[in-house]
Amino acid sequence: MTKLTEEDIKGIIKCYQDGMNYTEIGKKYNVTRTTVTRKLKSSGAYDLDLSTKECEYCHTEFSPSKYGYDVQKYCSNTCRSRAYSGVSKEHLKSCSVCSKTFINERDTMFCSIECKKEYIGNELAKPLPISKNALRLSRARQNGQFDADIDIYRLIERDGEQCYLCGDVVLFNVHFNDPKYPTIEHVIPIAKGGTHSWDNVKVACRDCNTRKSTKNVELFTKEAEYGGTTKKDVG
């Protein structure tokens, strides 16, 4: 080991100030890292940098050891061993709760049990989604009279098997999305204050029910007569 001269010590200080790490300085002057640190401290030039670093494997910020700040590249032994063994970074994933980067070994969304519990708790606290049909029936109840016993079979028994809008026979022996499948049609639309009551429902094929939507019967009939536009539109 070389005995350091005053010029060597000045050189060590200069290398340190230029950003060279302790290992590199030690190699240059043929001394240990401990000797470099001791000389820097005794000269008053030593400035311990304890700011966070970014792990070269998982890119997570971490606080390195004060004894190995200049050489510590990884946040943990796991990242170090994976980096050395060549494990693909494709295994890295961002936690769905805290956004921390973690090694995804089991196709999970979370970096820890705590984050998983927090996610489940948040999901359970969310209100259940309301279906479009349930929302529509809720609105119908608010509109006034509500006959809960209405169904398509009883309606056909009352009115027959013809669509009241186009006059075609409705068909049960087809797919329920078929244009001629029977549906319950509200003459005055629920969205416009109509009630879900026997005096406001008629049999309609799915095609007419869909096209009528929230229109009144008069407007729907005019549009059907003029090929999808009213007389005002074509005139």
From TrEMBL:
<dbReference type="InterPro" id="IPR052892">
    <property type="entry name" value="NA-targeting_endonuclease"/>
</dbReference>
<dbReference type="Pfam" id="PF14279">
    <property type="entry name" value="HNH_5"/>
</dbReference>
<dbReference type="InterPro" id="IPR003615">
    <property type="entry name" value="HNH_nuc"/>
</dbReference>
<feature type="domain" description="HNH nuclease">
    <location>
        <begin position="151"/>
        <end position="210"/>
    </location>
</feature>
<protein>
    <recommendedName>
        <fullName>HNH nuclease domain-containing protein</fullName>
    </recommendedName>
</protein>
<keyword id="KW-0614">Plasmid</keyword>
<dbReference type="InterPro" id="IPR029471">
    <property type="entry name" value="HNH_5"/>
</dbReference>
